[in-house]
Amino acid sequence: MVSVYISVFAILGAFARYGQSVVVQNMLGDTFPFATLSINVLGSFLMGFLFFETLERINVSPELRTGILTGGLGTYTTFSTFSIEALHLFELGHLILAALYIGASVVLSIAAAFFGAYLSRHRQFTDS
């Protein structure tokens, strides 16, 4: 069953990634890899949040959890794209932009994962 969950969520993650790429590139252009940066930061936040939500708060099967985190978010975020875009900036001679992109991707993605984990662990539930 885990393979089914991974497959289904991988399809959803791929479509989400493509959709966000189109929207961000239409809004901000493609001279800087804003689309991949935004995907990696949002994906890191979601990984930090959902990892702990599905481990500590929400009772889901290990198979579904693996499908969501590995299939969905694993497909949605890709460091392989990040790597090739950084290489491309270096090859074009845009050393400062490449360094900015690498630094922003790493720092913002780790900060987003931390914030997601913090939000999951520290939010208060109210009975309505």
Secondary structure blueprint with pairings:
Blueprint: H1 2-28, H2 34-57, H3 62-76, H4 79-91, H5 95-122
**Can you tell me the number of structural domains?**
1
Strand-residue proportion: under 5%
Task: Count the beta strands.
Answer: 0
General form: globular
Radius of gyration: 16 Å
As residue ranges, the low-confidence spans are none
Biggest beta sheet attributes: none
Helix content: over 70%
Task: Please report the number of helical segments.
Answer: 5
Helix vs. strand class = mainly alpha
How far is the N terminus from the C terminus? 35 Å
Order of helices and strands: HHHHH
Provide mean pLDDT, rounded: 92
Keywords: Cell inner membrane, Cell membrane, Ion channel, Ion transport, Membrane, Metal-binding, Sodium, Transmembrane, Transmembrane helix, Transport
Family: Belongs to the fluoride channel Fluc/FEX (TC 1.A.43) family.
Function: Fluoride-specific ion channel. Important for reducing fluoride concentration in the cell, thus reducing its toxicity.
Membrane topology: Multi-pass membrane protein
Structure, explained:
With 128 residues, the protein is mostly helical. It has one domain. The protein has helices spanning 2-28, 34-57, 62-76, 79-91, 95-122. Helix 4 (79-91) packs antiparallel against helix 5. The chain is globular. It is a multi-pass membrane protein. Na(+) binds at residues 74, 77. This is Fluoride-specific ion channel FluC.
